[in-house]
Each structure stands twice: as structure tokens, then as C-alpha cells.
Design a protein that fits this description.
- The structure is a single chain.
- The protein has about 350 residues and is of the alpha/beta class.
- It has a single domain (about 10-338), classed as Alpha-Beta Complex (Spore Coat Polysaccharide Biosynthesis Protein SpsA, Chain A), CATH 3.90.550.
- About 30% of the residues lie in helices and about 10% in strands.
- A 7-stranded mixed sheet has the order 3-2-1-4-7-6-8, with helices on both faces. Strands 5-9 form a two-stranded antiparallel sheet.
- The longest helix is centred in the C-terminal third of the chain and has 23 residues, at about 305-330.
- InterPro entries: Glyco_trans_8 (IPR002495), Glycosyltrans_8_dom-fam (IPR050748), Nucleotide-diphossugar_trans (IPR029044).
- Keywords: Glycosyltransferase, Metal-binding, Transferase.
- It comes from Shimia abyssi.
Length: about 350
């Protein structure tokens, strides 16, 4: 993991799982890496979880696939210590009449994790299913000091090129706050979450402002109002598709495939994802006989026309200095801005 702006080879490669990758799952760990999924998104959560297991061979955290109903996990992946954690909360979540849009109700399950897992886990790292923790031992992420804060998170990519850019969720409500974080990677102190009754504050905020724009992310931001430990963007790198060249240079710890187009859409829609990562996803779902398989077209993965590719390269050059200035705010990726 480089975390610096130096050239280097593409960091995506097949990772061999260390034989002791699951050796600590029987120990009473006080940390857990958690995903919240339905059956449709299970293959992608398992891909992410398997990468985390491979990169953390001596890990001191559990890996949980949290769901509202039981999900089947292939034995090759349970052997890595990846397990299904069922939380019987569907009726509870549906009764809250949450804003869903294109999302399943499971998207809000992350908000319930601390209350239901705090008796066992002191720290949680939540990851979206479209993340790829393929470049760092996540044990080090769990140990980042959060200071007085409940939550550690990375600023949303909408603010990366302009830290003072107004955020619609705040601007529309006349809220004087500009720090807006992405909810795809969350580091949570469960004891503080419980003691500060965060879940009830989230519910109260939902009842006050039912028309929030970005679902759980809006709800979290409107509740915390910038009072978070600000993590380095390398822990939630939201531009692997838009800024492929810069992504290679930064070499982030966790890639987050934000936006509508994911690597598993490469057979249907143009993207900037490198062929290596597309093939990684394709090979994974086929090896484990999971739903979500996609076949490579005879003509190859769908790509943009030449004119668009040239414009894309120009954008890389223009944005580069501004992104370097952003990263300079975080000289040590293992220290949050408090």
C-alpha cells in the first residue's frame, strides 16, 4: 500500500489466501468487518469479503455478511471465516417507511448494526458491497484513533476537488455545515454509539426530514453534521472508474466502485475499469457458482469511443494537482483528522 503519488504497476492481481487466514475466527474477537446485503448483492459482498480475508491473514476481526434472512455462503468462503449474521429486523425497518428509491431495505441495516452487535464487538467496520479492500490489512483501519467521535468516515467524492462545495442535503435546509461524508466505509465505536443513543437520533432525524436525497447517507450526515473523525480518502477511494490513472498512482487501500456502472456491468456498458478487475469479478462468481455471472462478449468488454477516451485523459491531467492537494491533508493514513 503506497498511499503516495508515485507511479506504479496496476495494484489489482489475484491474491493467494494465506493458510492461516481464518485461524482467528474461533477466538473471541472484539472487532468485526460487516456487510449488509440481500441475495442479489451477495456475490459482490462475498468478493469484497474474500479480498479482505486474503489481505489480513493474521486478522483479529470477524467477517460478517449481515442479512434479514439466511443466505447461503459457499463452503470455500466459510472456510475463510466469512459467516452469515441474520438480524430479524425486516418488519422493524419496513415500519419506519424509509426512503428507498432504487435501494433494498437492507441498505439501512447498517444503521442497526451497533445496537445489535455491541455486546460482542467494540469496533465495527462497515463496507458497501461495491468495495474492494484488496490493498491493505484492515486490522490497521480498526485501530485508528477516533478521538471523541462515534464515527470515522471519508469525505464524499463530491467534495474532493472543492472542500467547501455546498452540499444539497445541508444547503436546502439552511444548515451551516460543509463536511459531508460517504457512508460506504464506516468505522464505528459501538460503545459510544450506544451511549449517545445514535439510532434514536437517526430515527428522529428521519421523522423531521422525510425527504432526504441520498438515503442512509443523507440520514447519517444530517444527524452527525460533520462531527466525525475524518479518514484519509485511501480508505474509501471513490474514483476508480472516473480517474483510473490517478487511482494507480495513489494505490488506495479500499476501492469503492461508486456510481451506476460497476465492474460487473462491463459486458453491457462502457466503463474505465481495467480488464484485470473485470476478470477478477467474473472469475470469482464463476468459481463459486454464484448468481451474478456475466459472460465476456466475443468483441471484448464494452469501451468508450476514441474521442471520449482522449477527453478522459485530459481530465486526468487537469484533476491531478487538485487531488494531490487533497491527499496532502492526510500525511499519515493511519491518523484521522479530529
Amino acid at each position: 500500500m503506497n498511499f503516495i503519488q508515485t507511479s506504479g504497476p496496476n495494484r489489482i492481481e489475484t491474491v493467494t489466501v494465506h493458510p492461516i487466514a481464518a485461524s482467528k475466527t474461533g477466538i473471541n474477537n472484539h472487532k468485526a468487518l460487516a456487510y449488509c446485503v440481500d441475495e442479489k448483492d451477495l456475490p459482490f459482498a462475498l468478493f469484497s469479503a474474500s479480498r479482505a480475508a486474503a489481505m489480513s491473514p493474521n486478522r483479529d476481526f470477524d467477517i460478517l455478511i449481515c442479512s434479514l434472512e439466511p443466505l447461503k455462503i459457499p463452503s470455500a468462503l466459510t472456510d475463510l471465516g466469512i459467516k452469515n449474521q441474520v438480524l430479524d429486523l425486516r418488519k422493524t425497518l419496513e415500519q419506519e417507511k424509509l426512503s428507498l428509491g432504487w435501494l433494498p431495505v437492507e441498505a439501512y441495516l447498517r444503521l442497526c448494526l451497533p445496537d445489535h452487535l455491541s455486546t460482542k464487538y467494540q469496533r465495527l467496520v462497515y463496507l458497501d458491497t461495491d468495495t474492494d479492500p484488496a490493498n491493505a490489512d484492515l486490522s490497521q483501519l480498526f485501530d485508528i484513533n477516533l478521538g471523541p467521535f462515534v464515527l470515522g468516515a471519508v469525505l464524499d467524492k463530491t467534495q474532493w476537488l472543492s472542500l467547501e462545495k455546498p452540499v444539497l442535503d445541508f444547503e436546502e435546509r439552511g444548515i451551516d455545515c460543509t463536511k459531508y461524508f460517504n457512508s460506504g466505509v464506516l468505522l464505528i465505536d459501538t460503545k459510544k454509539w450506544i451511549s449517545q443513543n445514535v439510532l434514536q437520533h437517526l430515527i428522529d432525524e428521519k421523522n423531521r426530514n422525510p425527504d432526504y436525497l441520498f438515503h442512509d447517507q443523507s440520514l447519517l450526515n444530517l444527524t452527525f453534521l460533520g462531527k466525525i473523525a475524518e479518514l484519509s480518502p485511501v480508505w474509501n477511494w471513490q474514483w476508480p472508474n472516473s480517474f483510473r490513472r490517478i487511482t494507480r498512482q495513489v494505490d488506495p487501500a479500499i476501492l469503492h466502485y461508486t456510481g451506476i456502472i460497476k465492474p460487473w456491468h462491463a459486458a453491457e456498458k462502457p466503463s474505465w475499469y481495467p480488464q484485470t478487475i473485470i476478470e477478477e469479478f467474473r472469475g470469482f462468481v464463476q468459481r463459486h457458482n454464484l448468481n451474478g455471472q456475466f459472460q465476456k462478449p466475443e468483441t471484448g468488454w464494452v469501451r468508450y469511443p476514441l474521442k471520449t477516451r482522449i477527453e478522459y485523459e485530459v481530465d486526468q491531467l487537469i484533476a491531478g494537482p487538485r487531488i494531490r492537494r487533497l491527499l496532502a491533508r492526510y500525511p499519515d493514513p493511519y491518523k484521522a483528522i479530529l
